[in-house]
Amino acid sequence: MTIQSVEWKNDAIVILDQQQLPNEIIYEHLTTIEHVWESITYLKVRGAPAIGIVAAFGLALWARSKQSNHLELFLDEFEKQRDYLASSRPTAVNLFWAIDRIVKKVKRAQSVAEAKDLAVAEALAIQKEDVQTCRRIGENGLSLLKDGNTVMTICNAGAIATAKYGTALAPFYLAKEKGLTLKAFACETRPVLQGSRLTAWELQQLGVDVTLITDSMAAHTLKTKEINAVIVGADRIAANGDTANKIGTYGLALLAKAHDIPFYVAAPFSTIDLNTLTGDDIPIEERAAEEITHLQGKAIAPAATKVFNPAFDVTPSELITGIITEYGVVRGDYQTELTRLYSNEIET
Ligand code: MRU
Fold first, then answer.
1. Which ligand 1 atom is the nearest neighbour of the CA of 198?
2. Which of 81, 160, 237, 347 has the most CB within a 10 Å radius?
3. Mutation to probe ligand 1, out of 156, 270, 282, 325 (largest number of atoms < 8 A from CB)
4. pLDDT tens, 210-233?
5. What phi-psi label fits residue 260: left (phi over 0), alpha (psi between -120 and 50 degrees) or beta?
């Protein structure tokens, strides 16, 4: 079964509502840019590349619906819509990368009609490229593993967090195609359970042997089970390789180090932000207290409990064995290697 998180259909956006998983597979039509903003903010569409894709389509949707013949006014308003979508979530840089790419393209238009077409075409191109990008990440990731290996992961960096294949989960898709077996341990990923609700579900759909653990079981599991690698996704990778990903990732990296297990980050180049120099410069989203104090609408903490709810943490680059990208596995001096790859592969 191929599940697509975001689709552009008859000038509208159709999303898989990831908040309903694993209990229901519900597709929702987003018909306004406000719907798109809400779908990102309330995690119906989540995962760095998927957020970028739906935001890109959000701008296309707005452009298509706008009645105007005045190019300059249209472009002014287009940029305001870009800023509006940019306010939906702060950490995943793919969001800004995708909407800025659309704005840049649309600014080349000679007429409003052309601007509308360019917005749609560019959004479709971003989505299409992500399929190939993730496939290459899967191939590069798989080259680090052996048939029969077991991988631990956190959050969901799977097909539903991208256009297809995922990043951290992409090696599982490629392994299936090649008739190889990989097993997974999925951390449940408190507070909103992307690991149990999404990764366990997605890997089961793929026919992968996946074992669910709570986040607090990671140390014991790394010590007592044969885990060959930890592979996680990323929301933003700074120029020096420091990586923001779902809260709990940093702890997992420390544990992997303590148990001498390789710790890989899998991400497309659109997640690498050379303008952000170190992890300290990455904005970390803090989300509503209810995500921690309530479970399925029911209180699990005393009323008015003080809460700290950062959605992401930053893993320092020295804990990262390698960054699996579409251009290969980056290791060692990330600052130099990422800059070199960027100028060789992206700027040429
Ligand atoms: O809050 P989320 O669910 O959007 O967080 C997602 C992650 O942390 C993923 O690991 C990351 O975006 C990579 S998705 C390929």
1. 3
2. 237
3. 156
4. 999 999 999 999 999 999 999 999
5. left
